[in-house]
Amino acid sequence: MNLPKMSTTKPNFLYAKLKVSLACPNHLNQQFNPTKPNRVWTSDISYIPVNNGFVYLCVILDLYSRKVIAWKVRTRITTSLVLDRLQTASDKCKPAQLLLFHTDRGTQYTSSEIRQFLDHHSLTYSYSKKGYPWDNAVTESFFKYMKKDELDRRVFKTTQEVTLSSFEYIEGFYNPKRPHSANNMLTPNQKEQIYFESL
């Protein structure tokens, strides 16, 4: 019937290896357990639906204790949101030695303003590989459980409602009450407190 021959062999695909850009180095390399506080901070921004669209929650975590050291909800996802939280974290924690700040490659984190802030405060930037959330797994996990335990259980109408809910979860539950296996089942506040009391 002059039908074309149908191929029965599986084609070979060449998968591109994930590469780290020289402009966005990954210094963390999934080493999620520093031995002291204020050695590695991680950050990310999550979308939260409200009646008229979305609001955005930015958090900064200290990997030593898994503690949220700075957070904020805003109606716009901008570089100034990250800068504001970085300034708050720096003023609050006053890191005395070199500190690694690890994030994904969102434009808010790769902007020249953020890099200038990090350089001015002697902080080293580190970025996840492109499209590879496992490089920032601790922060991704934080948002996963926050949404599961708190945000996805509610319907928000305003930014103020999201802010109050975030405060209740982070300051009222996550930091003071939620145990972590990475902390030997201590809460973030407990692990941090034990470290500073031992000095």
Structure description:
The chain is of the alpha/beta class. It has one domain (40-197): Ribonuclease H-like superfamily/Ribonuclease H (Nucleotidyltransferase, domain 5, 2-Layer Sandwich). Helices cover 35% and strands 20% of the residues. It has a 5-stranded mixed β-sheet, with helices on both faces. The protein is globular and about 75 Å long. The model is unreliable at 18-22 (pLDDT under 50).
- Return the CATH topology: Nucleotidyltransferase, domain 5
Seen as an oligomer or otherwise, the chain set is single chain
Distance, first to last CA: 86 Å
Number of helix segments?
6
What features would you highlight for this structure?
6 helices, Nucleotidyltransferase, domain 5, 5-stranded mixed beta sheet, alpha/beta, 199 residues
Note the topology.
Layout: E1 40-50, E2 53-62, E3 67-74, H1 79-93, E4 99-103, H2 107-110, H3 112-120, E5 123-127, H4 137-149, H5 159-177, H6 188-197
Parallel strand pairs: 1-4, 4-5
Antiparallel strand pairs: 1-2, 2-3
Q: What's the quick description here?
A:
The protein is α/β, with parallel strands linked by helices and 199 residues long. The protein has one domain: Nucleotidyltransferase, domain 5 (2-Layer Sandwich), CATH 3.30.420.
